[in-house]
């Protein structure tokens, strides 16, 4: 009997304490105004500082004033719904702290590439989900341009952009990827001179080795601007198109044979044909 009474006394005390705290908090909220906005990011990604400034900028456009408003008049759910309408966040949670701050916790949508599609511009994440392109959420990621569609979405280029980003040499070399179609993916170097036709998204390692062979064996003698296009799209071939179009030559086409990468490729993995073509 004594234990039962003790338990009830403890429960009553806890209930009284919670009620008193609630009443006190309500009273404090009615007397105190919001002191500011504290944004935290549920990630350690490099875009955190950009996202924090972006969240604060978006809240500055919220239909109701936040800072300086009495805490009891701030509807945190309404603020959450406002931010969740933006494609830049996976989740948003808002709470009011005891020191009078609006605490905003966001899980950002992490962009993987920036897409220029006809007259539109947007980001996509690792799953291909579109993220609105906003200046206040700018992120430095690989750039892709092209005419994309449901049958040829920008997401289909992720294997190429990831391959470039994971390769230190290509990451320094390539400034942009241009998708003319699914079979003609063009790498545009940061240095003006020529472009590289990588074909489709298959055999990326083999194409990379062929390109490096061309740079090692041909470019030192021909120069960076001798060709306007270097194509490694075809298996066993490197095709280079001259920049300056020569007069029509009546005779046999010039063709030079060499092993494109004897140090890294097996003989049966690469035919080794190098075709130097001058379009007429």
Describe the protein in words.
The protein is an alpha/beta fold. The protein is 30% helix and 26% strand. It is built from seven helices and 14 strands. It has an eleven-stranded mixed beta sheet with strand order 6-5-4-7-8-9-10-11-12-14-13. A hairpin with a 5-residue loop joins strand 9 and strand 10. The longest helix has 30 residues, at 2-31.
Strand-helix topology:
Blueprint: H1 2-31, E1 36-41, H2 48-60, H3 76-84, E2 89-96, E3 101-108, E4 113-117, E5 120-124, E6 130-132, E7 143-146, H4 158-165, H5 168-173, E8 174-181, E9 184-189, E10 195-197, H6 204-217, H7 219-222, E11 227-231, E12 237-242, E13 256-257, E14 273-277
Parallel strand pairs: 1-3, 4-7, 7-8, 10-11, 12-14
Antiparallel strand pairs: 2-3, 4-5, 5-6, 8-9, 9-10, 11-12, 13-14
């Amino acid at each position: 009997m004594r234990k039962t009474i003790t338990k009830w006394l403890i429960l009553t005390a806890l209930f009284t304490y919670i009620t008193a705290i609630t009443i006190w908090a309500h009273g404090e909220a009615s007397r105190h105004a919001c002191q500011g906005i504290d944004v935290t990011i549920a990630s350690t990604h490099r875009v955190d500082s950009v996202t924090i400034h972006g969240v604060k900028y978006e809240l500055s456009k919220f239909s109701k004033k936040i800072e300086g408003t009495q805490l009891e008049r701030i509807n945190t759910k309404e603020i959450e719904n406002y931010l969740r309408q933006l494609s830049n966040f996976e989740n948003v949670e808002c709470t009011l702290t005891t020191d009078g701050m609006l605490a905003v916790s966001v899980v950002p949508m992490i962009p993987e590439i920036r897409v220029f599609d006809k007259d539109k511009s947007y980001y996509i994440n690792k799953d291909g989900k579109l993220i609105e392109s906003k200046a206040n959420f700018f992120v430095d990621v690989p750039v892709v341009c092209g005419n994309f569609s449901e049958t040829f979405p920008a997401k289909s280029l992720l294997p190429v952009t990831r391959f470039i980003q994971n390769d230190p040499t290509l990451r320094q070399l390539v400034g942009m990827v241009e998708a003319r179609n699914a079979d003609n993916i063009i790498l545009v170097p940061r240095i003006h001179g020529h472009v590289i036709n990588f074909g489709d998204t298959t055999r990326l390692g083999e194409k990379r080795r062929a390109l490096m062979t061309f740079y090692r064996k041909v470019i030192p003698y021909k120069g960076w601007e001798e060709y306007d296009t270097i194509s490694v799209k075809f298996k066993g071939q490197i095709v280079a198109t001259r920049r300056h179009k020569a007069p029509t030559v009546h005779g046999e086409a010039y063709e030079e044979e060499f092993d494109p990468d004897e140090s890294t490729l097996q003989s049966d993995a690469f035919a080794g044909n190098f075709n130097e073509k001058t379009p007429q």
